[in-house]
Amino acid sequence: MVESSKRDSGRPAAGSRIGVVGSNMVDLVTYIDRMPEAGETLAAPSFSMGHGGKGANQAVAAARLGAEVMLVSRVGDDLFGEGTIRNFQEAGIDARHVRAVPGTQSGVAPIFVEPSGENRILIVKGANEHLLPSDVEAAAAELRSCGLILLQLEIPLETVYHTIAWAAREGIEVLLNPAPATPELDVGRVLAATFLVPNQTELAIMTGLPTGTREEAERAARVLVEKGVRTVIVTLGAEGALLVTAEAVRHVPPVTVRPRDTSGAGDAFIGAFAQHYVRSHDIEAAMAWGAAYAADSITRPGTQKAFADAERFEAFRASLP
Ligand code: RIB
């Protein structure tokens, strides 16, 4: 069993509450036969609207599986914002630090899903750009009770750096999902995070290296470990996931399903990983749990809409060979 090295250091066991400092979006999902060419208009089979955003998705996945989750996020002062806050409350998430920013619009994400289930996502960050370090300070008392904080890159980088530094001072573990990837991310300022969880594209952008195969992804992840990242978990889509630390490399095999819509699969993996990890502190077991949860989610359309609750996930696991 590979455990977090921080836990091995004798630090007192933290709580099983999960904090998320991150984004929310309204997903505008169009199911297409193919992308139109420039200047071409094309009819598409169907459209669906739902709650999304990487931070929100991860929070909802963990909460659906029974984790206690609190979220720090910003919405616009519009109807989408009101609906988003209601959605968090319905999911049982502590949303006291999800607030509307006057004069802004809520984040939206036009998503295009091909018949193979492959997705293409645009994001308009809107109010998410207004989630500031001072908002994290304002939520410090609640965040202090968390055993793990989840971060992504749909909010200002300064807020990400600030949260990581603050959590390190407080002795709270952090999982950074560097998504969407940006070459502006300063790896030197995220080294205090316990986990870095990129997909292959994000890993390629962060390292400038090829990551198309499992071997390439491992080599690229090692570069990050050599820079001082403690634990790299690469999500490999249909290939499962890869754990790379200074001491170990482990491959967690995929759970094979027929994909309907892969959008949000990475968030499903992380939310479920977090929910398992805060109770077990067993990284490999949490990865296998996350991989199964993500596999189940891609059999249904949508992002949060596709995330199972604990009962439904148990039924999925029971149906596996
Ligand atoms: O990871 C999937 C998510 O990315 C979508 O829900 C969309 O909102 C974008 O944030």
TrEMBL record:
One example GO MF annotation: ribokinase activity
Q: Which SUPFAM superfamilies does this UniProt record tie to the protein?
A: Ribokinase-like
Q: What is its EC number?
A: 2.7.1.229
Q: Where does K(+) bind?
A: D261, S263, S297, R300, G302
Keywords, comma-separated and alphabetical: ATP-binding, Carbohydrate metabolism, Cytoplasm, Kinase, Magnesium, Metal-binding, Nucleotide-binding, Potassium, Transferase
What family does the database annotate? Belongs to the carbohydrate kinase PfkB family. Deoxyribokinase subfamily. Belongs to the carbohydrate kinase pfkB family.
This protein is called Deoxyribokinase
What is the species of this protein? Roseomonas gilardii
